[in-house]
């Protein structure tokens, strides 16, 4: 692979603003962003660092070529002109994934097939041997982006999406995707250097684990062992080791408190197991209780809740009581903190009964969702809704 090329980091819709800030905070120059991605320019070191460190991203795509194609045959012809022997090993394995939106292709599988044939025929005709191909995403992943007649061909240097951070062995019910959970925390006003993080209704522990990783300086994908970039010609394992080493130099021991509770003992034990895998179990105080009984320590920080919201679990009537009690809990037990509720049920959000300070829009598994912020002042300053 050439030294420098355009990079497109993708994310869930509505997350690109947060992702762009995250990328800048790692020292990169952002060129542009749209609804589901952030563009920059970079080489091997950058690809490795982005894959390892980003928390709110889904994929790191690295451009191989871009051109115009008005039909599948043109795509095939241009693909065959690329010097694939400098990119994929002849005895390697690749798969093709794509996003296609134009009038020439009705079934994206046909576009994928044309791209695959272009690579295979380049090899056959120039070397008489070709890499294997199939559906597995744990080796070289080629990504085709074809909108109207604009084609970009990328390496998906993540392979399996980095929206999963590799520590969740047990999902429990309705878990948040790790990159989305991280994005909501990055959106909040939580200070990872000193703010307490209280997470009642923790479920499988995604939110508290993401927060504990941030406070410990542990990169988002520290626990991942395989990435797409490891299967591209030019991959240098020593460079990867040095990128991991410099990330490790930033590990720290947090001094603030992390508290996670759930009413279900099974959820708490799953959250504990996941936190063990993530390497942060020792700094989280777990407990089984109704959220109203959660211990909120002296000091300040955030109280972060992701209650059920009737779409997938629970039923709305019962949940009305729960959401009402969240307002009471915030008022009575969380003074001095900032309260956050992440929910996909905008009607239930209204019954919390406190005036939100801010609302942030997210999409969670295609459900229009909100992260709602409540500033919880001590004494009488809390603003009731009515
Ligand atoms: C939507 S899930 C949270 C998922 C979590 N964010 C994750 O990523 O795994 C909601 C959780 O609230 C818990 N829960 C429901 N009612 C509760 C209550 N009254 N007190 C404490 N936890 C409760 C459920 O057991 C469930 O684990």
Describe this structure in words.
This protein has helices at 16-25, 44-53, 72-80, 108-127, 178-187, 206-216, 237-248, 265-278, 316-333, 346-350, and strands spanning 5-10, 32-34, 37-42, 59-68, 93-101, 132-133, 140-147, 150-156, 196-199, 258-262, 284-288, 301-305, 338-343, 358-364, 367-375. It is an alpha/beta fold. The protein folds into two domains: 5-156, VC0802-like (2-Layer Sandwich), CATH 3.30.2130.30; 178-216 and 251-381, Vaccinia Virus protein VP39 (Rossmann fold, 3-Layer(aba) Sandwich). The strands form two sheets. Strands 2-3-1-4-8-7-5-6 form an eight-stranded mixed beta sheet. Strands 11-10-9-12-13-15-14 form a seven-stranded mixed beta sheet. Helix 8 links the parallel strand 10 and strand 11 (284-288). Helix 2 packs across helix 7 and helix 5 (178-187) packs across helix 6 (206-216). The longest helix is centred in the first third of the chain and has 20 residues, at 108-127. The protein is elongated and about 75 Å long. The termini are far apart. The mean pLDDT is 94. The structure holds S-adenosylmethionine. S-adenosylmethionine (SAM) binds next to helix 6.
Task: Give the helix/strand layout.
Elements lengths: L4 E6 L5 H10 L6 E3 L2 E6 L1 H10 L5 E10 L3 H9 L12 E9 L6 H20 L4 E2 L6 E8 L2 E7 L21 H10 L8 E4 L6 H11 L20 H12 L9 E5 L2 H14 L5 E5 L12 E5 L10 H18 L4 E6 L2 H5 L7 E7 L2 E9 L11
Parallel strand pairs: 5-6, 5-7, 9-10, 9-12, 10-11, 12-13
Antiparallel strand pairs: 1-3, 1-4, 2-3, 4-8, 7-8, 13-15, 14-15
The structure holds S-adenosylmethionine.
């Amino acid at each position: 692979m050439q030294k420098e090329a355009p990079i497109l980091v993708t994310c869930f819709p509505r997350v690109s603003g947060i992702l762009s800030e995250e990328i800048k905070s790692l020292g990169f120059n952002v060129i542009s962003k749209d609804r589901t991605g952030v563009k920059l320019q970079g080489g091997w070191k950058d690809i490795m660092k982005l894959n390892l460190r980003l928390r709110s991203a889904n994929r790191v795509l690295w451009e191989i070529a871009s051109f115009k194609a008005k039909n599948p045959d043109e795509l095939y012809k241009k693909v065959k002109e690329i010097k694939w022997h400098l990119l994929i090993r002849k005895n390697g394995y690749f798969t093709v994934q794509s996003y296609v939106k134009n009038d020439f292709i009705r079934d994206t599988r046909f576009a994928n097939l044309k791209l695959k044939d272009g690579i295979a025929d380049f090899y056959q005709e120039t070397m008489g041997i070709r890499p294997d191909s199939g559906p597995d995403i744990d080796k070289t992943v080629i990504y085709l982006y074809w909108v109207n007649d604009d084609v970009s061909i990328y390496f998906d240097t993540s392979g399996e999406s980095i929206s999963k951070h590799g520590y969740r062995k047990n999902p429990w019910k309705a878990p948040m995707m790790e990159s989305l959970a991280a994005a909501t925390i990055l959106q909040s006003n939580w200070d990872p250097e000193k703010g307490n993080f209280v997470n009642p209704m923790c479920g499988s522990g995604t939110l508290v684990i993401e927060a504990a990783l941030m406070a410990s300086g542990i990169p988002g994908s520290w626990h991942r062992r395989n990435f797409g970039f490891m299967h591209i010609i030019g991959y240098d394992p020593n460079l990867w080791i040095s990128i991991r080493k410099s990330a490790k130099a930033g590990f720290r021991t947090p001094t603030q408190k992390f508290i996670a509770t759930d009413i279900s003992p099974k959820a708490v034990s799953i959250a504990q197991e996941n936190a063990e895998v993530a390497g942060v179990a020792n700094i989280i105080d777990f407990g089984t209780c109704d959220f109203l009984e959660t211990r909120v320590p002296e000091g300040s920080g955030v109280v972060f809740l992701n209650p059920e919201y009737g779409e997938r679990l629970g039923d709305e009537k019962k949940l009305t009581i729960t959401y009402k009690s969240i307002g009471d809990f915030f008022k009575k037990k969380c003074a001095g903190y900032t309260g956050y509720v992440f929910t996909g049920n905008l009607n239930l959000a209204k019954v919390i009964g406190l005036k939100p300070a801010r609302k942030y829009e997210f999409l969670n598994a295609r459900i229009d969702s909100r992260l709602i912020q409540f500033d919880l002042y001590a004494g009488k300053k809390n603003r009731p809704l009515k």
